[in-house]
Amino acid sequence: MAEVRVIARAVAREDKADELKALLSGLVVPTRAEAGCVYDDLFESNLPGIFVFNELWQSQAHLDAHAASSHFKQIFGKADQILAEPLEVNLLTAVG
């Protein structure tokens, strides 16, 4: 199975950065414990209110299971109310 690399970007609504940071931070530990998660790191940009997940999954099936997990659905159910735009998810393929 091919590994799947993910870069996901979340942008907070004005004055909601701290709330989004706390919410997204709560996703890291349970995600790291999931089957197939090689790593899952959350970063805060130097630009206000922007957060980036850097993830590596053993397979697409593992990533799909993550997206269907109860903790993912719970967090992003709440995050939708404080995101300035939809979550941007990029699946990456190495080219060199």
UniProtKB/TrEMBL annotation:
It holds the Pfam family ABM. PROSITE patterns: ABM (PS51725). It comes from the Bacteria. GO terms for cellular component: cytosol. SUPFAM superfamilies: Dimeric alpha+beta barrel (SSF54909). The keyword Oxidoreductase applies. Keywords: Monooxygenase, Oxidoreductase. Residues 4-91 form the ABM domain. One of its GO terms (molecular function) is monooxygenase activity. This is Quinol monooxygenase YgiN.
